[in-house]
Amino acid sequence: MLTLTWLLIAVPLASAAVLLLAGRRADAWGHWLGVAASGTAFVVGFVAFLQMLGLESEERATSVHLFSWIPGGELNLDAGLLVDPLSMTFVLLITFVGTLIHVYSVAYMEHDADRRRFFAYLNLFVAAMLLLVLADSYLLLFVGWEGVGLASYLLIGFWNFKREYATAANKAFFVNRIGDLGLIFAMGLMFSYFGALDFDSVLSQAPEATTAQLTAIGLMLLLAACGKSAQFPLQSWLGDAMAGPTPVSALIHAATMVTAGVYLIVRSAPIFNGAPNAQVVVAAVGAFTLILGALIGMAKDDIKKALAASTMSQIGYMMLAAGLGPIGYAFAIFHLVTHGFFKAGMFLGAGSVMHAMNDQVDMRRFGALKGAMVVTWVTFGLGWLAILGVPPFSGFFSKDKIIEAAFVGEGWQPWVFGGAALIGAGLTAFYMSRLFFMTFHGKARWTDEVHPHESPALMTVPMMILAVGSAFLGLFLAMGDRFTHWLEPVTGHAEHHEPVLPVPVLIALTLILVAAGGLLAWLRYGRAEVPETAPSASLATLAARNDFFQDSVNRAVVQRPGQHLTRTLVYVDATVVDGAVNKQARGWAGLGEASRRLQNGQVRSYAATMLVGLVIVVAVIVVGGL
Amino acid sequence: MNPINFVILAAILFSIGSAAVLLRRNAIVAFMGVELMLNAANLALVAFSRIHGQLDGQVMAFFVMVVAAAEVVVGLAIIIALFRARQTISLDEPAELKG
Amino acid sequence: MVSPVLFWVVAILTVVPALSLLFARKAVHIAMSIVCVMVGLAAAYVGLDAPFLGVVQIVVYTGAVMMLFLFVLMLVGVDQREDTRETIKGQRWIAFFTAGGIAFLLISVLGRVSIAPQAARVGNPEEIALVLFGRYVLVMEVLGALLITAAVGALIMTHTPRLTPRRTQSEVQAARVLAGADPVNKPMPGVFARHNALDVPARDPEGKPIEHSVSRVLEARHQMSDGDEFRTRLENTSNPEDSQLPNGAPSADSDERTPRIGEEDQK
C-alpha cells in the first residue's frame, strides 16, 4: 500500500483536471467528485498509515520511486515520494481536514455559480500540497510548493470580479515569489555544496558541511518558509488573503499551506542542527511574528482578519519551536496538527457565522449569536478553549510544550524566547476571547436585515468533527508522548532538558496569564457594551489595526527603492546602452550620408569611375612591369 | 610594316570609344562607343594572332564577336524598354541609381 | 608583312569616322560612321591574313549589329536630339584625361616593344574551323547557349504585358467626348469650300473656314490655302474658254503654280 501513495496525488489531480476540462457539464455533480477525490486520498492515506503503524519505527520511512525525472550528468534526479512519519502526519492532516472542508464547501458554496471551478481548485490544492509533503527531493517539493502557491492564488482571487480581491491574490502571489526565490537559492547552494537535491543525499551530507554553508542554506530556507508561512517580514499577504472564500481560509490559510514553511524547516532539520545561528534567526522570527500577530489580532474587528492574525501568531509559535532545535521539532509539528484542527474549526465556524449574517465580517455588528447558532457556538467554543491552551484541550498540550521548550537553554535565549512565548499565550487568550465574546456573547448589535440561523448539516457536521479533534486530539497524542515517539525517526531523539524555570511554575504562569487575558476580554467585550463602530483609540491600537503599517513599510522599504532602481536602470539603459548603440548607428548613418554623394545616379559618372580604375590598373601594370 | 602598328591603332580606337561612353548622353551612341571598344580589342587580337603566326587570336576575336552580338541584342532591348518607360534614351535621366 | 598603304588607309578609314562618336550631332550620322569603321576594320583583318574574320566582320557588324542599331534609332525616333551641354561637373576633363591616359599608356608601352612577326598562318575558314572545333569546341557550345539566352532575354525584355484592360470603341469614344473633343468626325478638307483640295479648309455653316480640317502637316509647312483666296485665284484664271472645254478642265496655262499662303511671306 505504501507504494501506492502516488495515488494520493494522482486522484485529486485527475479530479481537478476533469472538473476544469469538463466545463459546465460537470456543474451538477462536480462538487461531489471533488469530495470523493479528497475522500479517496484520505482513505489511501489512512490505509498507508495503518500499514506504517505495523512496522518498526526504524523501518517506517519508505521511498517510492516514480520515474527518472532529470537524468542530467551532474544532477541525476528521480521523481520519488518519501513516506515517513512526518509526511504521513501531514498526509493525514491534509486529507482529513481537507475532506471535511470539501464537504463543508458543498453547502457553503451552494449558491455560487462557479462551485465546480472552486472544487477543481481545491482538488488542485490538495494534490499540490500532498506533493509538497511527499516529495523526496527539494526540487519536487518545489513543484508542490509552487502548486500550492498557484492554488492559493486562484482561490484568493476566486471572486476576482471584485477588484480588491484580485489585488489580494496578486499580493499573495508576489510576496510568495520572494519566498520562492529563497527556496531556489537554497537549492542552488545545496547543489553547489552537495551536488544533489534529494533529501537523502543532502541531509546525510549536511553534518559534513561547514557551519557557514549550512547557515547560508538555512537562512535561504527560512526566507522560503517566511514567504509561505506569512512570517515577518513577509507576513503582509495573509490578512488580505482572507478575500478568498472562508473554506479556503480554513484549509489553505490556516490548516495546511501556511504551515508548509514549518514543514520545510523540520524536514531540513539536519541543516539547521549544524547552523546554530540560523536556528536562532528562525526562533527570533517566530517569536517576533508570534507577538506581532497577537497584537494585530487584538485590534482587528474583521473576524476573518483577526483569525488570520491569530494564524500568523500560532505559526510563529511553530517557527519558534522549530528554531529551538531537536527539542522543538516534534512540538512544532504537534502544535501544527492541533492548530490545523482547531483553527480550521474556528474558520469554519466563522464561515458559518458569515453565512448566517449575510457575509458580514465586522464583529462589532455580531454579538449574542450563541442563542441563534448553538452548534456553531459550541464548536467554536471548543476551538477557542483549545487555542487558549486551557487543559485538557488540544492547545494546552501542544502550546505548553513549546513554552517549556522555549525556556530551555542558556544565556539570554530562554528568557527572551520563553518570555515571548509566555506573553504570547496571554495575548492569545485576550484576542481570541475578545473575538469569541464579541461574536457570541454580549448584546445583539446586528444590522437590521440579518436573521441569524444555524447552518445546514453539511456545514455543521465537519465543524463538529473538527471540534472533537480540537478538544481531544491533543490529549490523545500527548498521552505517553505518543506523537513525539512517532516522529522520532525523522526529528531525532531529543534529550530531556530542564527549563530554566521549573515546569509546574511555567504551567501555572501560563494558565494565570491565559486566565488574565480571558478575564480582561470578558470584562471589556463580554460584559461591557461594545460600540458598533470602532472607537478612536491610542496610537498603538491604530497601528495594530493597520497591521503595523506593513504595507506602508513594504512600500517604503521595498517598492519605492525598487521603483527608483528600475527608473535608474531604465535611464542608464536609455542613455548609456541605447545611447552608445544609437550614437554608433548615427555615426554609420553619417558615413552613409557622406558616401551617398558618390552615388549620384549618373551612369556616366560610374563609367568614368570604372575607366579611371582601368587607367590606374594599366598604369600600375605598365610602370611596375617595366 | 610591323603589325604592331595595328595594335597602336586599336589603342587609339579604344580610347575614342571610351571617351564616347563617358561623354555622350544618348544611350545608343554610348553603346556604339562600347562596340567600338570591343572592335578595338578584336583588332588587337587579330594583330597579335598575326604577330604570333597562330590562329588562336582570330578565334578569340570570333568569340568576342559572338559575345558582342549577344550583348547588342540584350543592350538594345534594354534601351527600348527604357524608352518605353521614360520616352527618352538619355543616360542622365534614369537617375534612380542615385543613392 | 602588311603593306603600309593598307595600314594608313585603314587607319584613316577608322579613326576619322570614329571621331564622329565624339563630335557628330545626329545619331544616324554616327551610326553610318561606325559602319565605315567596321568596314575599315574588316579590311584590316584581311590585311592581317584573317580573311575569314574580315568577312565575318562585314556580315556581323555592318550587316547585323549596325543595322540593328539603326532599327532601334528609327524606333525611338531619329529626332532624339542630344543636348551637348555637359551636365556633370568635370566629366569632360575626366573623359579627356582617362581616354588620353589609356592611349598614352598603351602606346608608350607598344612603342617600346620590338617583335619579329612569325610567318603568317592564313585564317581561312578551314584553318579556323580546325581550331574552333578542336581546342575551343566547348567554348563554342557555351557561346551557342549564350546566344540563345540573349535572344530569349531580348524577347522578354521588350515584351510588355497588358497592364490595363482593353478599351472598347465605345469607351474610347466616351472618353474623347468627355475630354471635350468633337463628338463626330472632323470635317473633311474642302467640303463646302467649292474645292475639294486637301489644302483648302472646310467651311462651317456660317461660311467661316474650319482650320483644323486641314492636315496638321500642311499647316506646319504653311501650305494651307484659304478658301476665299482660292476662289479669287480661280476667278482670275478663268477665261471664257473654260466653258467651252469639255468636262470643264482648266486650261494649260493655269497649271502654273500659284504661290500659296505663307510662301509669299517667306519670300
TrEMBL record, chain A:
Q: Where is the NADH:quinone oxidoreductase/Mrp antiporter transmembrane domain?
A: 135-420
Per the database record, which ranges form the NADH-Ubiquinone oxidoreductase (complex I) chain 5 N-terminal domain?
69-119
Which GO molecular function entries does the Swiss-Prot or TrEMBL record give? Answer: NADH dehydrogenase (ubiquinone) activity; NADH dehydrogenase activity
List locations, semicolon-separated. Answer: Endomembrane system; Membrane
Taxonomically, the superkingdom here is Bacteria
- Entry's transmembrane regions: 32-54, 89-106, 118-135, 141-161, 173-197, 248-266, 278-296, 317-334, 369-390, 415-437, 457-480, 500-523, 606-625
State where it is primarily located: membrane
GO BP term, example: electron transport coupled proton transport
Question: What name does the UniProt record give this protein?
Answer: NADH-quinone oxidoreductase subunit L
What organism does this protein naturally occur in?
Demequina activiva
Native organism taxonomy: Bacteria, Bacillati, Actinomycetota, Actinomycetes, Micrococcales
Automatic annotation (TrEMBL), chain B:
Instruction: List membrane-spanning regions.
Output: 6-23, 28-48, 60-83
Which InterPro entries does this chain map to? NADH_UbQ_OxRdtase_chain4L/K, NUOK/Mnh_C1-like
Membrane topology term reads: Multi-pass membrane protein
GO molecular function terms here?
Answer: NADH dehydrogenase (quinone) (non-electrogenic) activity; quinone binding
Q: Where does it primarily localize? A: membrane
Location(s) in or outside the cell:
Cell membrane; Membrane
* One Gene Ontology term from the biological process aspect of the record: ATP synthesis coupled electron transport
Q: Which EC main class describes this enzyme?
A: translocase
Which superkingdom is the protein from? Bacteria
What keywords appear on the UniProt entry? Answer: Cell membrane, Membrane, NAD, Quinone, Translocase, Transmembrane, Transmembrane helix, Transport
What is catalyzed by this enzyme? a quinone + NADH + 5 H(+)(in) = a quinol + NAD(+) + 4 H(+)(out)
The UniProt entry, under Pfam families, shows:
Oxidored_q2
Query: A Gene Ontology CC term for this entry?
Result: plasma membrane
Q: What is its EC number?
A: 7.1.1.-
Q: Which HAMAP family match?
A: NDH1_NuoK
Q: What family name appears in the similarity comment?
A: Belongs to the complex I subunit 4L family.
Listed under subunit, the entry gives:
NDH-1 is composed of 14 different subunits. Subunits NuoA, H, J, K, L, M, N constitute the membrane sector of the complex.
Q: What does this protein do?
A: NDH-1 shuttles electrons from NADH, via FMN and iron-sulfur (Fe-S) centers, to quinones in the respiratory chain. The immediate electron acceptor for the enzyme in this species is believed to be a menaquinone. Couples the redox reaction to proton translocation (for every two electrons transferred, four hydrogen ions are translocated across the cytoplasmic membrane), and thus conserves the redox energy in a proton gradient.
Protein name (database record): NADH-quinone oxidoreductase subunit K
Organism of derivation: Demequina activiva
| Name of the coding gene | nuoK2
From TrEMBL, chain C:
Q: Which terms in the Gene Ontology molecular function aspect does this entry carry?
A: NADH dehydrogenase (ubiquinone) activity; quinone binding
**Which residues fall in a compositionally biased region of kind Basic and acidic residues?**
222-234, 254-267
Query: Where do the segments described as Disordered lie?
Result: 222-267
Output the Gene3D superfamilies linked to this UniProt entry. Answer: NADH-ubiquinone/plastoquinone oxidoreductase chain 6, subunit NuoJ
Q: Which GO terms describe its cellular component?
A: plasma membrane
Q: So what EC number does this one have?
A: 7.1.1.-
Record membrane topology: Multi-pass membrane protein
Keyword set, alphabetical order: Cell membrane, Membrane, NAD, Quinone, Transmembrane, Transmembrane helix
Origin: domain of life:
Bacteria
Question: Which compartments does it reside in?
Answer: Cell membrane
InterPro entries this protein is in?
NADH_UbQ/plastoQ_OxRdtase_su6 (IPR001457), Nuo/plastoQ_OxRdtase_6_NuoJ (IPR042106)
Comp. bias regions, Polar residues:
235-246
Which regions span the lipid bilayer? 6-23, 30-48, 54-78, 90-113, 133-157
Instruction: Name the enzyme's class.
Output: translocase
Q: Which Pfam families does this one have?
A: Oxidored_q3 (PF00499)
Q: Which reaction does it catalyse?
A: a quinone + NADH + 5 H(+)(in) = a quinol + NAD(+) + 4 H(+)(out)
- Report the family membership: Belongs to the complex I subunit 6 family.
Which NCBIfam families does this UniProt record tie to the protein? PRK06638.1-5
Cited function: NDH-1 shuttles electrons from NADH, via FMN and iron-sulfur (Fe-S) centers, to quinones in the respiratory chain. Couples the redox reaction to proton translocation (for every two electrons transferred, four hydrogen ions are translocated across the cytoplasmic membrane), and thus conserves the redox energy in a proton gradient.
Q: Spell out the protein name for this chain.
A: NADH-quinone oxidoreductase subunit J
State the organism named in the record: Demequina activiva
Q: Taxonomic lineage per UniProt?
A: Bacteria, Bacillati, Actinomycetota, Actinomycetes, Micrococcales
